[in-house]
Design brief:
Largest sheet: 4 strands, antiparallel
Number of domains: 1
Strand content: 35-45%
CATH topology: Alpha-Beta Plaits
Number of helices: 2
Structural class: alpha+beta
Radius of gyration: 11 Å
Shape: globular
CATH class: Alpha Beta
Order of helices and strands: EHEEHE
Helix content: 25-40%
CATH architecture: 2-Layer Sandwich
Number of strands: 4
Strand order of the largest sheet: 2-3-1-4
Length: 74
């Protein structure tokens, strides 16, 4: 188990409801241990177990919720 912390840029968030939608979209991802969303910066900081998930999988779940999410360069 190796925890990693990455930044995911999220376009399309405009309000607290959007932030809640992002949290809900990622709630069931096994291995995601922490997420902090900054609405003003249009990004999320995620901490996850890289043996169970990846930043790309987390970003894809956010995309599926209707936002444009991309993993920032490490």
């Amino acid at each position: 188990m190796a925890d990693q912390t990455r930044i995911i840029k999220i376009d399309g968030m405009t309000c607290g409801g959007c932030v809640a939608s992002v949290y809900n979209a990622t709630a069931d991802i096994d291995g995601l241990s922490a997420m902090s969303i900054e609405l003003a910066d249009n990004q999320a900081t995620v901490t996850f177990d890289d043996s169970k998930t990846s930043a790309e999988i987390i970003a894809a779940a956010i995309d599926d919720a209707g936002f444009d999410a991309t993993v920032a360069n490490a």
